[in-house]
Amino acid sequence: MALPLQVQAEIVGREPAGAYHRMVLRAPGIAARVEPGHFVAVAIGGADSAMLLRRAFSIHRADPAAETIDVVFAEAGRGTRELARLRVGDSVNVVAPLGTPFPLPAEPVSAVMVAGGYGSAPMFALAEKIVADGGSVAFVLGAATAERLYGVDQALAITEDVVVTTDDGSEGVRGFVTGPLPEVLTAVQAGVVYACGPMGMLRAVTEVATEHDARVFTAVEESMACGVGVCMTCVLPVVGDDGVSRFVRSCVDGPCFDGTKVRWDDAGTIPADIEGAAAMGAH
Amino acid sequence: MTDGYGGFADNDDAGDFDAPPSTIMLPGGGIDLATRLGSTLLPNPVTTASGCAGYGKELAKFFEPAAIGAVVTKTIMPYPRSGRATPRMAETPSGMLNSIGLQGPGIDAFVERDLPWLAARGGRTIVSIAGGHVDDFVALTERLKGAPGVVGIEANISCPNVANRGQVFACNPATSYDVIRAVRDAADPLVPVLAKLSPDVTSIVDIARACVEAGADGLSMINTLLGMVIDTDTMKPVLAGVTGGLSGPAVRPVAVRCVHQVHAAMLDGQMARVPIVGMGGIRTGLDALEFILAGAAAVSVGTVIFNDPSAPVRILDELRAALIARGFGSLEAAIGYAHR
Lengths: 283, 340
Hints:
CATH class of chain B: Alpha Beta
Structural class of chain B: alpha/beta
CATH topology of chain B: TIM Barrel
Helix content of chain B: 25-40%
Radius of gyration of chain A: 19 Å
Oligomer: heterodimer
CATH architecture of chain B: Alpha-Beta Barrel
Radius of gyration of chain B: 19 Å
């Protein structure tokens, strides 16, 4: 497993990307360690910042030659608003690479990449790798509106099999990604599905993939405090190899999980059969 | 510094102080940072706060566990415990609320798997323990007898994330006494027992005195403060557990006050003098120094680790430099220096 580094990274690129921002960071030593699905934890503000918790972003691209990594983010709250104010030449403290990346197929495979909004960020590097290894890929990219799609052009540069959905029909097929997904899975005889997006989408994609006998790997978007495995805030109920369900950390055991092992419906609850649930009643 | 990590964060007013008489300097410009917790001698006073460093393994990617005074583990209970439902966390101004609910593997897995790893890595371990009854604390303490690398036991009698929150052992001198007495009696005589205290009490001195009378070799101050946040969009509490423990720099003045009050009571002869491990929002070496000046013999770095995973070693370096800059020849000379 790649050890994470903590470095002061210089912002060397900034551009709007639809409803999002793309930010390129020169982070010495990090890019060569990155695999698709890894994430970066970015500190907000300097050493006196009142926002203590790092923000986690999946790494969109890593360029070892240029020593850069880049991320795509939405301005959604205090922290990302602060990040959006930064300009080329400013610096941020980053810890990366973090997390368990997407498992790569051992043999050439037909893969379908499914993403909601900027959840697509890690999918392009992954798709390129699968293609380079002799496999093939298709994309189903969805978002609420056309401007909230991310990376349709990047997907088209990799494959012509790209289906777009929007909730409001402003681009592509009206509806959710799960609408056209069964047809796509059948058409490309998918062996594996990679998905990243909100929990409801990942749950639905897991169901469809399973019905089509495809493996399914999902990258979750859980809120984290530390990103390095010590705070225990980002847990999800996941079934272990031994069949026992446990609350596991999205930051180290994930964010990429076998979708069939995540108990999607039980997230946000304490399932009665999860390890250690009995001890909660006592005190 | 602009927005750097790993340097002095805020040393603007260094030099503007009332210098103490200089004592012996060690060769190489270093100073003696060793500190004593009962029968345990730590090479330096910086430890991790319970619940902010796991069992040491994750942070070993950022610093050697042996480089700091001790690793205080996440609280261990008798059995595996799932912890609370999510959301478990909310960021607050200069701090955060957590509502983890003491998720952990239980004492058996901890003793078999986590503790030997830390010991093999040369780490000194202070094991934080908690239970619902005095008997739980005793069973945990007995299980730790002879375990490798254990240099202390911290009895967490003050976690707010338990079912009858607010009514923790540490809210009452008598219940605090009972737990600490039982743990002290059950523990290896050479392993110091620390009592972790809550600031959410009417008189922390009364609780501290009860713990010391019960045989506590030291006091860890402070645990989180009970708080809550309401989401103004959903108009419901943010945390699934409704309330959570507030930590981070936001609580530091409360923590410094608690340490100062209890140390003052020791100097006044209201209670026996034992070492205090000070904690609450320590972010820099100067923050750590504040606790030491208030009366702490050691400090714990907690929530700030989430912001800066290598913070404990950075803070140790900054503290060393801050002590030298003020003319202290040893850590010991600075302990309680604000009381003069």
